[in-house]
Amino acid sequence: MADRYVISTIKDIILKIPPEKAKQFLHELETYIIEMQSTVMAAELFGGEEAKQLIIDAMQEHTTWIDDGINSATAHVTVNDEHIASLTFNGKDYKYE
Question: What residue spans define the domains of the chain?
Answer without folding.
Answer: 3-96
